Amino acid sequence: MSISDLMPPKTDAPNGRVTEPAGAVDLYALTAADLRQIAAAQPCGCGGTGWVGFDVPFDHPCHGRLFRCRCRAGDAERARLAGLFGAGVPPRYRRLTFESFARMPPELLDGKGEALEAAQSFAGVEQYRLDGGLYWRGELRAGLLLFGPVGRGKTGLAAAVCRAWIEAGAAPLWITWGELVETIQREYGRAGDGQYERLDRARGADLLILDEFGDVDGAGAASNDQRRIAYRVLGHRHDHWLPTLITTNLNPMRDDDGSDLCDRFGAPIHDRVAEALCHCVPVEGPNLRCTYLDLGGPK
Ligand SMILES: [Zn+2]
Predict the structure, then answer these.
(1) How many angstroms is it from 202 CA to the middle of ligand 1?
(2) Average pLDDT of adjacent 10-residue blocks, the chain of 299 residues
(3) What is the structure's pLDDT at 1?
């Protein structure tokens, strides 16, 4: 009996409990190993506890037993990434979800509708996996680049996407561009493969969330070394079509005032990121910096 036969219909599994197994499944035939696989395969429904139970009959050997929820599947890799990069979703944004945005007064969401929609699509991990990318406005790309002035909600949207991918069992790497550059440069001249290990992890992460891309030392062109790091990481993600979410205040469209993404990083990076890897969506409207704390930020 395959696991897909055993999977409960998605909508019938609130709180991770199997209320209505698909088809006529003999519950007594389910072993602990089967239930462990189902828990790891069905969408997260543990409510953050990391454990799910199943409504098997009282005399079933697994009655009352709890199994690891799918949202914890990426734990080991997430711990490894945290150890290597010391990064993660900033505490300020950790509790943000799309419901947090839905609760905002509509006038605060002015200029953010398109970005909210695109981010929500990116958070649909099952659909992403089915489509083999993020299908948006009739085009398939692997990633999303949110651009706009500071405080408009780019990082908050990225946090909500990150949370959805974690709940789907992925191990995203969340890192600011400045942290990525620093953690790699810190390894220069040290014995061992530190810089290459970090580069490889960033290149291959389940989902790379690169926050504040371009922000290290203000305006002007990025240094050759920064361009090298950007190219090694983002070029790889472009070539391998890997889920990537970038936030930046650099304009991905070329403009004339010398401060766009292309001016900062050069055409090879610009063309791969903005014209092939990512959908580029603006985040504008009111500044949200002071509102997050009321909308699911840390208490
Ligand atoms: Zn869960």
Answers:
(1) 25
(2) 41 47 70 90 85 90 91 85 84 88 90 96 94 96 96 94 90 94 92 90 95 79 92 97 97 86 94 97 89 50
(3) 29
> Any idea how long the chain is?
299
Within 10 Å of residue 26's Cβ, how many Cβ atoms? 8
Confidence (pLDDT) at 186: 92
pLDDT at position 17: 53
Residue 16 tokens read as 């991770």
Residue with tokens 């690169």: 210
Q: Mind listing the domains of the chain with CATH numbers?
A: 3-72 (no CATH), 75-294 (3.40.50.300)
Residue 75 CA to ligand 1 center (angstroms) comes to: 11
DSSP track, 96-117: --HHHHHTS-GGGGTT-HHHHH
| Burial (Cβ within 10 Å: 0-12, 13-18, ≥19) of residue 138 | exposed
Rounded distance from Cα 10 to ligand 1 centre (Å): 14
Residue pointed to by tokens 């790091």: 229
pLDDT at residue 81, as a whole number: 87
For residue 82, report the distance from its CA to the centre of ligand 1, in Å. Answer: 20
Distance from C-alpha of 214 to C-alpha of 212, rounded to nearest angstrom: 6
**8 Å CB contact between 22 and 8:** yes
What is the Cα–Cα distance from 193 to 114, expressed in whole angstroms?
A: 42
Tell me what pLDDT residue 268 has: 95
The predicted pLDDT at position 23 comes to 56
For residues 64 and 53, the answer to whether their CB atoms sit within 8 Å is: yes
Please state at what angle helix 154-167 crosses helix 113-123, rounded to 10 degrees: 20
Q: What is the pTM of this model?
A: 0.81
Do the Cβ atoms of 149 and 250 come closer than 8 Å?
no
Q: How far is the CA of 44 from the centre of ligand 1 (A)?
A: 4
* Residues with Cβ–ion distance below 5 A, ligand 1: 44, 46, 69, 71
Query: pLDDT value at position 255?
Result: 83
